[in-house]
Amino acid sequence: MIDVVQIVVLTFVALLGVAVVACRDTLRQVMVNGMFGLSLVVLFTVFEAPDVAISMAVVSNVAYPMLLLATIYRTRGRGADERERE
Amino acid sequence: MSVYPYVVAGVLFLAGLYGVVSSRNYIHAAVCLTVMQSGTYVALIALGAVSGGQAPITKGAQPGKPMADPVVQALTLTDVVVSVVALALMLALAQQSRRRGGTLDPDELARVRG
Amino acid sequence: MSRRRLRLLLFVPVAAVLAGVLMWGLVGLPSFGSPPHAYAAYLLKHEVGQRHVTNIPSAIVFDYRGWDTLGEELILFTSVMGTALLLRRGREDTGERPRDKAASAAVRHAGAFLVPVVLLLGIWTVSYGYLTPGGGFQGGLICSGAALFLWIAGSYRLHRGLTPTPLVDAAEGSGAAAYIATGLAALAAGQAFLAGFLPSGTVGSLLSGGTIALLNWATGLEVAAAGVLIFHEFLEEYIQTVPNPSPRQEER
Q1: Residue burial A27-45, b: 16+ Cβ < 10 Å; e: rest
Q2: Is the CB of C4 less than 8 angstroms away from the CB of B107?
Q3: Is the ipTM above a cut-off of 0.95?
Q4: CATH number of the domain that B30 lies in?
């Protein structure tokens, strides 16, 4: 049987996952993706998988944002530079 | 209601796939790919969960309560960490695309290459 | 534009078929909450008796499915190498490290306090990985997070100074090498590759697990080094965005 907490968390995960895809602005997507990751952490915790929850917590809230933000600034800053030069 | 977790996993996978197909930005596409991956995590972990169970860790476990499937958890936890370097590789490719092709849009890059 | 529209048009029927097959497959899985299948049930019953490790997923990662984990480690290794190759090539290395310092005193002090705490948390997660939730994969990544804190709370110079690239490169390689060496040592001891050949120790103590503990530490070292290397490359890209990097205020 599935209990109420699990249903609620699953619904959150589904909604946030779709929100991540629907978010076309990459900078905002980083934020939404962080929330999606956090919802997955809660999901893994209520699904009796603490090891995976720890993995997901570190990955989605330290590594992903850092890599994404560095890439976004690199590609944006470069674009602005080039436009100025031309 | 007992198929709901699997449906959520399928929804995540398909949403991520749609994002990858329709994306106009490599960074966005890379994040959508991680959403697809998350779909597989949810499917695996839901497959392993036991109703009224506990985590498969015998230290401090309550006797008599069933334990969740540790195999799928082991599979998932390594993949979660490895997904970081996979994302890093994709983002490095995106940066190269920006640097050499001058664009992050897959379609525009195809036009640049001819 | 037509290309994109064509792709989206093609996507609709393909996705419909895929969704159908996917849902059909997923619905055919054992219903949610049903007891684990035979392999998992066997491991749950006999793992502690065989390997003396209380965190069963860790025992599976580093022992029963140690071969898979070797594959994952090599994926990690090659991805990091690919990233480093892609980003290092074509980057003009000025050699000059920017003198950026965190502007806010609160960030500096809280960060200085957090660096050792996060590092300790990472090492703790690795070392107790086979007793309680945690392990080399998670703990290693937390350790690399500590290196990131050096940049957030201190400066880029500090971050690069305390994690010199040759050292991190060496650490990553030796982590992967240690994993394979442990596997080969099992061969030398007359057993199968990656088999546990060391005594398993007392259940629930840090000395339990035998080779599981060794492989756990090797993985922790490799993942930590891989994380730091990737952060180096991406931060270097970020730093180069601004020619005279003072995104944060100079210290007064």
Answers
A1: eebbebbbebbbbbbbbbb
A2: yes
A3: no
A4: 1.10.287.3510
Q: How far is CA C91 from each of CA A36, B95, C159, C236, C239, rounded to the nearest angstrom?
A: 34, 11, 20, 9, 12
Residues 5-24, chain B, touching C (beta carbon < 8 A): 5-7, 9-10, 13-14, 17-18, 21-22, 24
Residue B102 lies in a domain: yes
| Domain spans of chain C, in order of start | 52-80+98-252
Indicate the burial class of C204 (C-beta count within 10 angstroms; 0-12, 13-18, 19 or more).
Answer: middle
d(C-alpha B42, C-alpha B4), whole Å: 11
Which residues of chain A are within 8 Å of residue C32 when distances are taken between CB atoms? 2
Number of domains in chain B: 1
Residue B57 in domain: no
Chain C positions touching B21 (Cβ under 8 A) are 7-8, 11
- The better pLDDT of the pair C164, C94 is held by C164
Nearest-CA distance C133 → chain A (Å) = 5
| Per-residue pLDDT reduced to its tens digit, B60-104 | 888 888 899 999 999 999 999 989 999 999 999 998 888 888 888
Chain C residues with beta carbon closer than 8 angstroms to that of B78: 61, 68-69, 72, 137
B56 in a domain, yes or no? no
Residue A82 banded pLDDT, cuts 50, 70, 90: very low
* Chains B–C, number of C-beta pairs less than 8 Å apart: 166
Mean pLDDT of C23-30: 84
Distance in angstroms (rounded) separating the CA atoms of residues C11 and A46: 35
C142 and A53 within 8 Å at the Cβ level: the answer is: no
pLDDT in tens, A15-70: 999 999 999 899 999 999 999 999 999 999 999 999 999 999 999 998 999 999 98
The whole domain housing B77 covers 4-50+67-113
Q: Do A54 and C125 touch (CB under 8 A)?
A: yes
Pick among B8, B41, B77 to test the C interface (most C CBs inside 10 A)? B77
Residue B60 lies in a domain: no
Chain A: give the shortest CA distance to residue B76, in Å: 7
Region at A73 (left for phi over 0; alpha for psi -120 to 50; beta for the rest): alpha
